[in-house]
Amino acid sequence: MTAEPEINSAKPRPMRADARRNRDAILTAARATFEEEGVLASLDGIALRAGVGNATLYRNFPTRDDLLAAVASVSIETALAEADALSRSLAPKEALAEWLIRLAWTLRIWHDLPTCVASAQTDPQSSMASACAALIDRTGTLLRQATLSGNAGDGATAAEVFELVVALSWAVDRFGDNELTARRRVSVGIAGIFRIIALDDACLGAPSGAVEIAP
Question: Dihedral (C-alpha) 50, 55, 60, 66: value to the nearest 10 degrees?
Answer without folding.
Answer: 90
